[in-house]
What does this fold into?
Amino acid sequence: MIMQEYFSGIKNSCHGSYIKHKLADVLTIVMCEVMCRMSKLCEIMVFAESRAEFLAENFGITKIPSKSTMSRILSLVDEKNNLKKER
It folds into this structure.
């Protein structure tokens, strides 16, 4: 759970009433897939859905976010990263 603890320190800028998935869970899913050398969202989604039991047992992630949710969150993370690079 160390990875999720690290990610839990990242503030989710979404309005609380819209949050259905923890940001730390989404980032944990993405990091697991990136460590398996997956870089495309479609690959990440297939892997996450096929490894749902693994994610639940090892990280307590019981709901896999939809592709649109993953895309939206990753675009926000990417947008913030790009803003930091411009400064």
Observations:
- Residues 2-86 form one domain.
- The two ends are 33 Å apart (CA to CA).
- DSSP finds five helices and no strands in the chain.
- The helical segments are 2-7, 23-35, 41-50, 52-59, 67-86.
